[in-house]
């Protein structure tokens, strides 16, 4: 049975035919409903925007007068309620862009009025065009990734590293206030590395000191500085210098499945681990050793619970061996492949980075994006039997105009076995045409799944990524459907 799921996103790129309800503020935003606006406006910002976003309106035709690009305009073509301080510029001879002076407050809803009669000759009923948008709320995810010593020569100094993932772009200085760390009552320094991916931020809790007594480090996070209500903490035991023990464990599911054991001390390189570590009930496990970390690779992918037995004899860099036998329980849980639209971004139009929308996915290496265009002269017919997100009688009013496979495995810093947020620029897929509505469908094929099913043969897995006769038939049927 073919594994497939589809999520749909309707994107109005041409005119205002609807009223958007913004759940974040429970406020109704007025949007002009006369289809005649499609003759004059081909696109406008709506739905949700980034806190650092801009607001755009694209005219259906070129502005009749000479324009100077990126120069602030004195004419008040565009007004907002509540007001926004900033400047309005032409970025080409059809597109106005408003650039806020400061980042917009999260969750704030805005009503916009475009004085269309100041830009072109229009009937009295079309002199003012209303539209609205809201600023996306921030969300963060914090993951502890490693606990280790800095070097094999210094057993006193340790560090804890992790990553913060954000839903929206964030001010780095404010984001750095989210993480705090203490060793006992002593504050610890947290250093940061901010990547080119504005949603990915790595941190390191520096200069954790081991001494002759047991201690504890608490890494806590509070999203208040970035207007997010996420809070949490992670507690890490710091053993005394006399103790040599496992201090951190983890299960990694992708791309390979393995168990991580991290010790308080660097381990003696090239020591024979045979008989010292055991994945209970399973033989032929492969093991690797590097620094203070041992990885245990099962002979095949596991589900459910498993036990690792650590026997006496594993040696640290000084040749001291652990003396106790101890067991660790692990759960191998794989989330089934899925893709979801993010509710706050169901209606997206040109913003700072183009027509960007966000979606979430888990255990998928790729997704398929399809675009169906509802032609401008069929919009009224479409809305007779649908709301904006409807899908009735699509064959009568639309055609598929684009299809693209987006490779999620190329995105750096993502554990694809967990839920992640991805951002797709529609400008790379379609060019908006005046008056039309574009419906975005996002889904996946079985070959994109990273979920390992019992009973799937190696040959089936190897051939899964190839185009089958069934796939070709589906493609042909789909083509015929829209023809």
Notes on the protein architecture:
The chain is mainly beta and 483 residues long. The chain contains five helices and 32 strands. Strands 1-32-29-30 form a four-stranded antiparallel sheet. Strand 2 and strand 3 form a beta hairpin. 27% of the residues are buried.
Low-confidence blocks of residues: 1-5, 9-26, 344-354, 455-473
Radius of gyration: 28 Å
Q: Which structural category do the helix and sheet elements fall into?
A: mainly beta
Strand order of the largest sheet: 1-32-29-30
Classify the beta-strand content into a percent band: 35-45%
Give the overall silhouette: elongated
Helix share of residues? under 10%
Count all strands and give the number. Answer: 32
Average pLDDT: 80
Which sheet architecture does the biggest sheet show? 4 strands, antiparallel
> Total helix count?
5
Task: Please report the distance between the alpha carbons of the first and last residues.
Answer: 27 Å
Summary, kept brief:
The chain has 483 residues and is mostly beta strands.
List keywords for this structure.
single chain; 483 residues; mainly beta; four-stranded antiparallel β-sheet; 7% helix; elongated
What topology does this entry show?
Layout: E1 5-12, E2 20-22, E3 27-29, E4 41-44, E5 47-49, E6 55-59, E7 78-81, E8 86-92, E9 95-100, E10 109-115, E11 128-135, E12 140-149, E13 157-166, H1 172-175, E14 179-183, E15 186-187, E16 190-194, E17 200-209, E18 215-222, E19 231-238, E20 246-252, E21 258-263, E22 277-279, E23 286-290, E24 293-297, E25 304-310, E26 326-332, E27 338-341, E28 356-362, E29 366-374, H2 379-385, H3 394-397, E30 398-407, E31 420-425, E32 437-444, H4 458-463, H5 469-482
Parallel strand pairs: 5-11
Antiparallel strand pairs: 1-32, 2-3, 4-6, 6-9, 7-10, 8-9, 10-11, 12-13, 13-17, 14-15, 14-18, 16-17, 18-19, 20-21, 21-24, 22-25, 23-24, 25-26, 27-28, 28-31, 29-30, 29-32
